[in-house]
Amino acid sequence: xxxxxxxxxxxxxxxxxxxxxxxxxxxxxxxxxxxxxxxxxxxxxxxxxxxxxxxxxxxxxxxxxxxxxxxxxxxxxxxxxxxxxxxxxxxxxxxxxxxxxxxxxxxxxxxxxxxxxxxxxxxxxxxxxxxxxxxxxxxxxxxxxxxxxxxxxxxxxxxxxxxxxxxxxxxxxxxxxxxxxxxxxxxxxxxxxxxxxxxxxxxxxxxxxxxxxxxxxxxxxxxxxxxxxxxxxxxxxxxxxxxxxxxxxxxxxxxxxxxxxxxxxxxxxxxxxxxxxxxxxxxxxxxxxxxxxxxxxxxxxxxxxxxxxxxxxxxxxxxxxxxxxxxxxxxxxxxxxxxxxxxxxxxxxxxxxxxxxxxxxxxxxxxxxxxxxxxxxxx
Length: 379
Description:
Blueprint: H1 2-10, E1 35-38, E2 41-44, H2 56-65, E3 67-79, H3 81-98, H4 108-112, H5 116-128, E4 132-147, E5 153-159, E6 163-164, H6 172-182, E7 187-192, E8 195-199, H7 202-219, H8 223-237, H9 239-247, H10 250-264, E9 269-275, E10 284-290, E11 295-296, E12 302-310, H11 316-320, E13 335-345, E14 350-361, E15 366-376
Antiparallel strand pairs: 1-2, 3-4, 3-15, 4-5, 4-6, 5-7, 7-8, 9-10, 10-12, 11-12, 12-13, 13-14, 14-15
Helix pairs in contact: 3-5, 6-8, 7-8
């Protein structure tokens, strides 16, 4: 019972547990390593010695010497502010029904008798009530290429097929975008500790792009297609721009975030990360705080809880006008939030899962990007 209450305090509303654990729940939140639960309270367990965590050099070894396959699921949702308020109210009701102390003492029996299935159904209905939704499934292979004398690893990033709502691209524009997306892979990337800082095979990628471009110009006609191809050509010619594009893909943003957490070890960790939240605009910056004490789930994997908020120096007006730098001196500050859970395999020193959502508040609606990065078998 103690573990159930503890888990439900920290888990996403979709992963709340009761007398049994739903099949889709992949992570059970337990007490921080070195602590135990008793009567709902945390006690330090003096019998546990130095807790297992990740050695920084082993992280670099993992980046440079292992081959791992990942699936990345992205869900882009737009809500009006009333729709968002309805969704949050439904989620809070579902959580309160499972955590008695969230209700007043006089109302506790009423809360316990609530219909959990009906509350869950209300949450799902509120999720579907939105202005628009798009789902993407992407696949990547991270193939280590060793470390140099300074222990900086190099790896090749391959991209597999892209699926839109579980289907391969259908329309001509979708196919064109997918073809251009594949042109930047395989990308040979060099790390400086936790950061991607160099693209070492730009020449090969540009030669490959020249051949791809020639075929596309024959296959696709019209000003719109020509404009898309010309824009891609402009950044594929420029190594710095291409590296920036790769760094700011959803996969690389999330991958670099978890590597930074690994480097932080057991210490409380504060960082800033950029995410591609607004199409046609440069990335949006968020400040992120990692839980000081990681958790340990039932499978013996380390779980770290992350929270963050938008801290971009640009105003809402700058973002709406797709400015790359701060321009409005008295504009409304940008608002946004991040909630995520990272799961690490400490035996093999890699990220096993990273899932959560990032939100940004725009003028007329709120945009939420739900993400799930999962280690899998095979590309």
